[in-house]
Amino acid sequence: MDAVHTFDLSKSFGNFHAVDHVNLQIGSEVFGLLGPNGAGKTTLTRMLTTVLTPTEGTAVVAGADIRTEADKVRRHIGVVAQATTLDFELSAYENMDIYGEYFDIPRQLRKERIKRLLEVVGLADRAKSLVGGFSGGMKRRLEIVRSLIHEPEILFLDEPTTGLDPQARAAVWEYLVKLHKEQGITLVITTHFMDEAEGLCDRLAIVDYGKIVALGTPHELKRQVSGGDIVEADFLSAPENALNALKNADFVLEIKQQGSLLTIRVSNGAEAIPKIIEIVDANGGKVRTITLREITLDDVFLSFTGRSLRE
Questions:
Q1: Which of 143, 212, 202, 142 shows the shortest CA–CA distance to 177?
Q2: Cβ proximity of 272 and 266 under 8 Å
Q3: pLDDT of the chain along its 311 residues, tens only?
Q4: Residue 254 lies in a domain
Q5: Are 104 and 177 within one domain?
Q6: Can you give the CATH number for the domain in which 113 is found?
Q7: C-beta of residue 3 within 8 angstroms of C-beta of residue 26
Q8: DSSP three-state, residue 26
Q9: How many other β-carbons are positioned within 10 Å of the β-carbon of residue 308?
Q10: What is the DSSP letter of 23?
């Protein structure tokens, strides 16, 4: 049985379609929703976690319908929201203990689970410390383990590493991978970080303007963008005839322009670079810098949507 299965799931706010007829099947995996801010990732997650009611369609999460069995859904999921929901005036232990009470977990069992979970993320020695004095990474780790106190089948994490320094991000990533491998919990992660999506996720759905525009493993998504290399050329000057000459060159598969920067997809980057410089120079243009790299998830996003994930 799928952990999550959506059926034309949609959410509109007036005439604005935040999520537009999304159909997804998520199994026992680390699944990523990748897209820019405002793409609809958070709205989709809020429907799947029963915070928002769909305008159209529905979804089955952990075997329960989000419309008609919301309480059952909540019993089987954990949620780590984008904004912190910790009480900074309480200790780490108290934050977890109150959360455990929401799920009617007996006191002794709560105590045992809190001790074990805090040990897992290296916060056992800070159990009695006020959360207000924790670093960003410590707070995020505490929120993650707090969401696990009722042993959910599925954990939803909305932008779990936003605002963290690189070291804290790496620590959160490491724990999430370990959590999935050792406990078999399905993870559904929203992110706009390409390295996070590629490093953590078994499969990805690229989301733009409320729609799923691409779906697959990071490797599969890259393969959908035919052509093995990307050349990025930044111009001091780029006359129209120079751009047209490049677009008509037989070795060029695709060109996307963003200001003075051209992203040029080619089959062989090493051979293409001198040809690009030669064509531009011959048509009165001037290249400032030119670089060669492999296809990234941002290129996939650019190919499917016509704009960069970074925009």
A1: 202
A2: yes
A3: 799 999 999 999 999 999 999 999 999 999 999 988 888 999 999 999 999 999 999 999 999 999 999 999 999 999 999 888 999 999 999 999 999 999 999 999 999 999 999 998 889 999 999 999 999 989 999 999 999 999 999 999 998 888 888 888 888 888 888 889 988 999 999 988 888 888 889 999 999 999 999 999 998 888 877 666 889 999 888 788 888 899 899 899 888 888 888 889 888 888 999 999 999 999 988 999 999 987 888 878 877 777 666 54
A4: yes
A5: yes
A6: 3.40.50.300
A7: yes
A8: strand
A9: 15
A10: -
Q: How far apart are CA 221 and CA 173, in angstroms?
A: 22
Q: Return the HEC string of 179-232.
A: HHHHHCCEEEEEECCHHHHHHHCCEEEEEECCEEEEEECHHHHHHCCCCCEEEE
Which tokens go with 212? 């799923």
Question: What is the 3-state secondary structure of 84-146?
Answer: CCCCCCCEHHHHHHHHHHHCCCCHHHHHHHHHHHHHHCCCHHHCCCEHHHCCHHHHHHHHHHH
Q: Is the same domain home to 260 and 211?
A: no
Residue 281 burial (CB count, 10 A): 12
d(CA 47, CA 287): 48
Coil, helix or strand for 233? strand
Using CB atoms within 10 A of its CB, is residue 249 exposed (0-12), middle (13-18) or buried (19+)? middle
Between CA 157 and CA 161 the distance in angstroms is 9
The length of the chain is 311
Evaluated on CA atoms 285, 286, 292, 297, the torsion sign reads: negative
How many separate domains does the chain show? 2
